[in-house]
Amino acid sequence: MKTDLIIIGGGPAGMAAALAAYEKGIRDLLILERDKELGGILNQCIHNGFGLHTFKEELTGPEYAVRYMDMVEERKIPSLLNTMVVDVQGGTPCVVTAMNREKGMFKIEAKAVVLAMGCRERSRGAMNIPGTRPAGVYSAGTAQRYVNIEGRMPGREVVVLGSGDIGLIMARRMTLQGAKVKLVAEIMPYSGGLKRNIVQCLDDFGIPLKLNHTVTQIHGKERVEGVTVSKVDEKLNPIPGTEEFVKCDTLLLSCGLIPENELSQGAGAQMDDTTAGPVVNAKLETTVKGIFACGNVLHVHDLVDNVSIEAEKAGEFAADYILNGEEDWGEAVRPKIPEKSKCTLPEGRDAGSQIICIGCPVGCLITVNKKEDGTLEITGNTCKKGEAYARNEVTAPVRAVTSLIRVKGGSGRVVPVKTAGEIPKGKIRQCLEEIGAVVANAPVKTGDVLIQNVAGTSVSVVATGNIPVGNIPAV
């Protein structure tokens, strides 16, 4: 089997690279994806916050993925799903070895390859947390898949270790699905998540964030029964005498992401110790001839929009390589990596008059003062959206709600949904109760209205994913 270009990974990076190469004139190309559908991790990220840069509107993860999936389908770019790549070799030609149920083990020759495999979560073993090995210890991403894709709850009393964005988002998701999140522990003196997520994932639900704390013991034999949380010193060592037992049945680990580079290393690509991804030149080509890299496999990105932008460049460079031939490799260029967020809400912040804006990832600290004539003086915002948000937050706070609705007769148990607009913050619980009472009949398509006038707000609840008619896949 031969083709011009192979893209390994059908997530946001892989699809963006494929589309860019197609626009540059490459028609003989193929996406290889190990999951049953394109979209990658976005399919289980049912929360808002995606697409502000790429599509100039706020989307959920499945909505963002569908935008790209539709463009791939419109251009008839082929893909092999449920296909695992086991080896990649560069050269003329590059050779990719893959396997699936239909073809068994097979090889594909290509003029170029784009690596877009994404990243994986750091495991408990990598963090050396002592204790037994009971059920109930999950990475945050695994728990996210159980809840948002399979419609299963990992537990009911939860401690989250790590306050990156996925940890904060899962603290909220578990709360919205009826669990009690006892606390989020963070070993650093700051959160690694966006300020907007501190507000809308923890503050909105009264979930405590303990900075300079970590889990030092897991208790339980068959199932997690609790954890010991300890304060740490400036060298991140637990401080004796600060131990606190927290009863729980579930521990979610959100302690960092690692680029998925077994294939890159197997191909012989030189690796960068700082990014944990392959070394690339200005055209995103690795040190192996004909193999390019982009997205989270190159380095962990802060926003999916940035993944798409970088992947488009990789697709264009791979197309140029195929159409115009090889050029001198040049010098290694390290991709620009945004400084890691170090979110600490300002000390002495007056929660009554100072507001963290959640309108975008910037998270401006906005001050609101009520003047003698009753009008509001708003300062600190860097855009009009911040001013509008602060005014509403003081007078009538609103939130968009994302959740799940059960599905009958479909290929999945649940479909992700969102309110078509923001609703009063005080109506969130009622909204979730009404969502929980609904069972939709398959098929369900993105944009379908499943509830009208939810919680008496005049706002509808719409599907943000697709569930075709079919059998529920085996777990």
UniProtKB/TrEMBL annotation:
Domain FAD/NAD(P)-binding: 4-303
A Pfam family hit: Pyr_redox_2
Keyword field: Oxidoreductase
Coiled coil stretches, renumbered: none
Keyword Membrane annotated: no
UniProt-recorded name of the protein: DUF1667 domain-containing protein
InterPro entries: CPE0013-like_sf (IPR036593), DUF1667 (IPR012460), FAD/NAD-bd_sf (IPR036188), FAD/NAD-binding_dom (IPR023753), Metab_Enz_Cyan_OpOx_G3PDH (IPR051691)
One Gene Ontology term of the molecular function aspect: oxidoreductase activity
Presence of keyword Oxidoreductase: yes
